[in-house]
Amino acid sequence: MLPTMSVIPPRLQARRAVVGLTIGLLLAPATPLWAEESPVAEAITPTISPFDDRDYRVITLDNGLQALLVSDPDADKAAASMNVRVGSAQDPDDLQGLAHFLEHMLFLGTEPYPQSDAYQQYISDNAGSHNAFTAQQDTNYFFDIEPSALPGALDRFSEFFLSPLFNADHLESERNIVHSEYMARIRDESRRENDVLNQLLNPENPTTGFAVGSRDTLANPPEGEATLRERVIDFYHRYYDANVMNLAVVAPQPLDELEALVVERFADIPDHDLSAPTIDTPLIDTDTLPRYIERQSLQDRRQLRFYFPVPDPSDEYRTKPTQLIAHLLGDEGDGSLLAVLREAGLADGLSAGVGRGDGNEALFTVSISLTPAGAERLDDIEATLFAAVEQIRAEGLAEWRYDEQKSLSEQAFRFQQHGAPQQEATRLAMSLSRYPVEDVQYAAYRMDGMDSERQQRYLDALTSDNMLRVYSAPDVESDTVTPWFNTQWKEQPPTTTGQALDGLALPEPNPFIASDLTLQAGQDEQPSTLIETPTFTAWHMQDSRFNTPSVEWRVSLQHPSASYSAEEAVLMRLLAGWLNDSLNESLYPAWLAGQSFSAYAHARGMTLSFSGWRDGQTPLIKQAIEQLQQADISAGAFERVRYQLQREWRNAPRASLTGQASRALGEALLSPQWSTDELLAASQRLEKHHLEDFRERFLDALYIDAMAVGNLTADQAREQANLIRGALTPRLTRDDIPPLSPLEASEEPTVLHPHSTREESLVLRYLQGRDTSIDEQARLSVLAQWLDTPFYQQLRTEEQLGYIVNAGYSPLLEAPGIGLVVQSPDADSGTIAERMDAFMAAAGERLETLSDEELAAHRQAVHDRLRQRDTSLQGMANRYWQATALDEVRFDRQAHIAQRALEVSVEELQALWPSLLAHPLDIRFNPGDAPSDIGAYRETLAPFDPR
Questions:
Q1: C-alpha to C-alpha distance for 799 and 175, rounded to whole angstroms
Q2: CA 303 distance to own-chain centroid
Q3: Does 825 score more than 60 pLDDT?
Q4: Burial class of residue 610, CB neighbours in 10 A (0-12, 13-18, 19+)
Q5: How do the residues of the chain divide into helix, strand and coil, expressed in percent and rounded to 5?
Q6: What's the average model confidence in pLDDT over 376-380?
Q7: Which terminus of the chain faces fewer neighbouring Cβ atoms within 10 Å, N or C?
Q8: Which residues are paired to 921 by β-bridges?
Q9: Given a cut of 60, is residue 42 above it in pLDDT?
């Protein structure tokens, strides 16, 4: 690892003037070490949360590049993100996907670091991660890393924008990778919807092109014309310029040190006096509206979307004229559009808001998830939507509603929790490219006052003659197919006027808005036992480090037969789903006010999850428990929840192939488990009375674990815990609940096939450890870290097997393991497995000559990753809560593994290697493969030996 730089680099001493804006808690600008050469022109204090104790500075280099520096002394990772305000909208017509292809090419070597994996290897060796994405008007590159390695990471990162090699040796292979990425997403429903939408929008608008790219669109031009590589280089020089770049760096180093790092490395990025491209071509020809479209979905899912062209409201972020309209149409409380449609059995989900903006125009979208009955009444749903719009027009745009939204937004901003440094850097880089410096943090929350005139203009756009209606369902058929994602679609003539449903009502003032948001002092290092009885265990951890008066409660209701059979497992899911469904309307205002509740089923029963402000949480807990115990299970609610579950299980074979492989692995090596086919079949045998009987049996025989993490004292947590215990009266002990147990993979190498209808091939190879000890978990973690980058480099970059290629540590509960995954649009699973075999053989040879010095970086990377701090209260609560699912509840397990990782020797890995290779379990798939009987395989296995 490189040491942190703290002196002025020689290259900096000859730098041109740097214009800087300091953003921090002080009104006076910080003075960098080279102040005489690069004076800070002015200081700006942005609007920041009163609990944000990080230091900010924005510097504008003489070349035009703007950089936001955030010094966070508590951060245990450093991160950077460069947002380039150029994207797929700038693709030339004859090379669609070029911006995305360029994004890929920048990773493949620079003049100072010509190796194609130099950047990736450095990041990986220093406990980091990296990625990039190309959007319509942005390309964003980002990484995080161990803080002391930040100078070296910025050395390599900055050269993307200074001296990329556009590696000719990898041009063809990277084109294949882009094509693999396209094929991996060709069945994605959102992309299929957009592909249809692009046929309906203005073809002259540059956002309607094919953004991903393929072998065909990125083919070499005819002889005599510029080559593909020359076109990539030309695009780079034509559009990449310091003036269209916004950099954000979040790290624990002081601002002056971060400024030195950035100025030295980024001040030479060329300044061609460019500006970010803008779009003034209309997004859609409104003279063609209204239009009624149907498209085929691959999943068993029916959706109805209404698109309305509107001005892009991005620049109106100070008043947010569309927010109240979206809030009222997307409301889920009593009398809302969704509530009325749900009550009629027509819909089970709804969202509303602005999307697909290009800076000039956008689409206000209302998206409705339909039931089969709803698919038969599209016109009635449309009529009900416009009845809701008219109700808003008549009485909805009241100032008190805007003020209520503003108050909730201010609460959220005041107690804003920062994400992980990488997430923060990416968000801030994009924010810096869109908003004035002073609003970089505040823009998403800012609501200066209601602009009735602008609100009315947006509302006036929501009419039946300014509408694009798109219905998607699996039974839609047509000879017309979209060019890129093979989606069948057709246009229908205008339909008859439907009949609006009765019962619409606008929401009343929100009764759940918290009033006591004081922060209580006190900080525990980890959860401790609060209450321990044979039938009920509660843990508590008081926290104030996140500066939010919030609490996370988790309550696990455990029952012996929760997963005894497929029927019981379905009933458990039905009960949790019904509880969420039945509370949706009454608790939606609580969710808006910062309180949330959800129930989810698991192998031992059901967990009740409460998140939000401390103030007002007790009534929420009471209401959820009373609903679970006493509320009527209506026939409509039962059918709605069962349909949602059945839809999920029917769609499972069409889901992402890597997700299907992971699920198949869990079905094979965890017990008890039930396949989606078994769950679907069982659900078809169940009726409402079965769920009513199950609820009674379930509540009559419980063991309960509970945990409270957040800004509440032990006495406050004990009071709520006793309320839960008294209301639910658990009678069983932890020993009465069958465990979810890992199983030992067969001694013989085994191949299993998932139930899939996908068109790609895949191999997921699982190498299982020998025992559940801390030592073994540390060994496999370090070994997986050592394998990761070479596996990716060889099978993805060099052999071009596919876009999805990775190797990583993959434990199943306490049983350690390593998973290696390759998904390919071209190579079959047999070929992939052969390439994996060759890689593993070569890795074994490399392991024999591995030195302790070479292993050191991998040990440190595992340690640093495991010791990474939590970046949100919810994330921390979930991490501790997961520890309670293991047989031995230890909240320091991760810390012990991290410490042991530093001691793993080369000799230990050499001794481990043969046992890992002795009995691999492969999940393989080729299109058309018949699914394996995974349940029968599981029945042959013994429990995993913990010793």
A1: 12
A2: 22
A3: yes
A4: buried
A5: 40, 20, 40
A6: 97
A7: C
A8: 750, 766
A9: no
Amino acid occupying residue 623: Q
Whole-prediction pTM: 0.91
Supply 359's token pair: 């800076």
Q: DSSP state, 943? A: B
Q: Which of 457, 806, 518 is nearest to 661 (CA)?
A: 806
What confidence tier does 495 reach under pLDDT thresholds 50, 70, 90?
A: confident
Answer whether 166's CB lies under 8 Å from 234's CB. Answer: no
Task: Say how many CA atoms lie within 13 Å of 562 toward its Cβ.
Answer: 29
User: Could you write out the three-class secondary structure of 811-867?
Assistant: CECCECEEEEEEEECCCCHHHHHHHHHHHHHHHHHHHHCCCHHHHHHHHHHHHHHHC
Does residue 503 have a pLDDT over 60?
A: yes
The answer to whether the CB of 504 falls within 8 A of the CB of 388 is yes
Structure tokens at 130: 């990296």
Torsion sign, CA atoms 38, 43, 45, 51: positive
Nearest to 485 by CA among 201, 757, 193: 193
Centroid of chain to Cα 264 = 34
Instruction: For residues 592 and 107, give the distance between their C-alpha atoms in angstroms, rounded to a whole number.
Output: 42
Written as six digits, the tokens of 697 are 């049996």
pLDDT, residue 220, reads 87
Give the Cα separation of 267 and 64 in Å (integer). 9
Structure tokens at 749: 């190498």
Q: Are 471 and 301 in contact (CB under 8 A)?
A: no
Q: What is the DSSP string of 473-510?
A: ETT---S-B-TTT--BEEEEPPPPP--PPS---PPPPP
- Residues 67 and 264 sit within 8 Å (Cβ to Cβ): no
Q: Are 459 and 392 contacting, i.e. CB atoms less than 8 angstroms apart?
A: yes
- What pLDDT, on the 0 to 100 scale, is given for residue 223? 87
Token pair 């090699």: residue: 165
**291, containing H or E segment:** strand 291-296
Burial 848-863 (b: 16+ CB within 10 A, else e): eebeeeebebbbbbbb
Q: In what order do the strands lie in the sheet with 468-473?
A: 347-355, 361-370, 302-311, 468-473, 291-296, 489-492
Q: Is the pLDDT of residue 845 over 70?
A: yes
The dihedrals phi and psi of 108, each to the nearest 5 degrees, come to: -105, 35
- φ, ψ dihedrals at 662, nearest 5°: -65, -40
Q: Closest by alpha carbon to 214, among 181, 170, 169?
A: 181
**What mean pLDDT is reported for the chain?**
92
Calculate mean pLDDT across residues 68-72: 95
Output the pLDDT for position 419. Answer: 87
Beta pairing partners, 489: 295
Structure tokens at 448: 């200066």
Mention every residue, 6+ apart, whose C-beta is less than 8 A from residue 507: 328, 331, 333, 334, 335, 336, 589
Question: For residues 728 and 776, what is the distance between their CA atoms, to the nearest angstrom?
Answer: 40
pLDDT tens string 323-358: 999 999 999 999 999 999 999 999 999 999 999 999
Which residues does residue 707 pair with via DSSP β-bridges, in sequence order? 539, 554
User: Which residue matches tokens 């995954």?
Assistant: 821
Q: Count of CB atoms within 10 A of residue 461's CB? A: 17
Instruction: Return the bridge partners of 366, or none.
Output: 306, 352
Sign of CA dihedral 581, 583, 588, 591: negative
Phi and psi at residue 754, to the nearest 5°: -75, 165
User: What residues form DSSP beta bridges with 704?
Assistant: 536, 557
Peptide bond into 672 cis (omega under 30): yes
Residue linked to tokens 């057709």: 490
The candidate with the shortest Cα–Cα distance to 131, out of 869, 854, 863, 803, is: 803
Name residue 240's amino acid. Answer: Y
* 246, 162 Cβ separation under 8 angstroms: no
